[in-house]
Structures are given as structure tokens and as C-alpha cells.
Amino acid sequence: MDEARRLRIYLKLVEYTSIPLTLLMILYVLTGYGMVSPALRHLGLSYALSANLHTSPALRWLLNAAVILHGYPGLALLARRKLKRRGLWRAAEAAIALAFAAYAAAVAYAELYIAFPGLGRGWRFGRG
What we know:
Elements: H1 3-36, H2 47-54, H3 57-82, H4 86-115
Helix pairs in contact: 1-2, 1-3, 3-4
């Protein structure tokens, strides 16, 4: 795929994921406050509802997908605009891809650990 087409796809991904990501982040902040403060009860955010929404696996997956689908192309576009040398931009894009792949792997591991609590028990770097 040529560079211009890839950058157009990156821009579309950033545009299409910005509103859902913003709404999910607002939801997470409000439900977080709903769990620790009674001030949001008049909005219908009781502790039980806030806790259920805040810890919902579906919302976690949606939020993490939106973070990856918005963050990677957004940072790649930023790197392309700021870094003029082609080799430097390619290296930055590779580093960004590696960072988001590590993030996705960490999220997948955490979700698998929630689903299967014994996963990773006995590994040197995990408390299990």
C-alpha cells in the first residue's frame, strides 16, 4: 500500500474513533465518580450501576479497541507531520506499532487472566 493511501486510512480511523473514544472516556470518568461519590446519584448513577458499567468486560474491550484504533494512526500521523526525514518517520512508525502491539498484548493477557484466574501462575514475572 502506498504512503498516501495509508495516511488517508489513518486519518479516517482517527476521525471515526474520536467521538466513540470520547464518549467511552466520559462514561468511565462518570462511573468512576459514581462509585466513590454520591453526588452523581441524581443523574441515575447509583453505586451498583456505576460499578456494573465501570467493570463491564464489553465496555473494556470497546475502550481498548478504540484506544488502539485511535492512538496508533493518530501518533503515526503526528510522526509523519513532524518528522521530515523518511527513515526517521519509518523508525518512529515502527516504534509506535511495537508500543501498541505491546499494549494490545498486555490488555489481552489481563482479560485472559480475569477469565482464567490461574493463567500465568508460577511465571517468574507474575504474582499469580
